[in-house]
Amino acid sequence: MSLFVAEGLVKRFDALLATDHVSFSVEPGQLHALIGPNGAGKSTLVNQISGLLQPDAGRLLLDGQDITRLPPHARVAAGLSRCFQVTSVFKGQTVLDNLLLAVQAHAGSSFHFLRRRAAEAALQDQALALAARTGLAEVLAVPAGELPHGAQRKLDVALAIAARPKLLLLDEPMAGMGPAESAEMVTLIGALRREMAILLIEHDMDAVFKLADRITVLVYGKVLVSGSADEIRGHPQVQAVYLGTETTEATHA
Ligand SMILES: Nc1ncnc2c1ncn2[C@@H]1O[C@H](COP(=O)(O)OP(=O)(O)OP(=O)(O)O)[C@@H](O)[C@H]1O
């Protein structure tokens, strides 16, 4: 069974069909990338998946559960975490405090049987483990707002995986990064994909081809093609529409 299914999604903005009967699925353990030129409808689709926008038709299934009508926080509880293009950290708080808040928010009742000291120690352990996994162990005492851009994005990822998602939705995690920071983010995502399925929306094509098991290409709100990284790389229509050098979008990508 697919871990995540988008089935016949439709979203209209007046006369514009921004999502035109989009269907694709993410398999367990896979990193699935969603690419497409500017204006193809990626953000509109991601917002429907995370629950910020309601589709006009179609449905979304996560691990067999219909999540189409759930509000965003209920989707997180169901196992779908999103990392935003715009950072969601508390900038005045230290990295450690941000991690502790996130771990605590998702701990639920799991520490209720512990005494307060022991529960605090368990939360602290989880926050430190999260920092180690995401390469933030050296900057725990730094206020989040003072981190370099790349480290802020890592903190975003850390906050999203604190919820222990089944599917992690990464919305342009490399945006605004230089080559060194991008390379670090590719390494981090590469490590996470062993633990959870990932849906990656990204303009950086090198990163997409390095990381993706499957790629879905959106053009004018429609799925042009879905396939393995090799199939997409060699697909003539994809090359013409998206990877070709003749369009400004391709330069941007
Ligand atoms: N709230 C809205 N109201 C009206 N039109 C919208 C709205 N949001 C998006 N659109 C339109 O829908 C189309 C798809 O936009 P969308 O932002 O989803 O594309 P995108 O692939 O994410 O683009 P980019 O890569 O530039 O972020 C565009 O033509 C856009 O102008």
From TrEMBL:
Indicate the transmembrane segments per the record.
none
Domain ABC transporter: from-to ranges: 4-245
InterPro entries the UniProt entry points to: AAA+_ATPase (IPR003593), ABC_AA/LPS_Transport (IPR051120), ABC_transporter-like_ATP-bd (IPR003439), BCA_ABC_TP_C (IPR032823), P-loop_NTPase (IPR027417)
> What Pfam families does the annotation carry?
ABC_tran, BCA_ABC_TP_C
Q: Which UniProt keywords apply?
A: ATP-binding, Cell membrane, Membrane, Nucleotide-binding, Transport
One Gene Ontology molecular-function label? ATP binding
- State what protein this is by name: ABC transporter ATP-binding protein
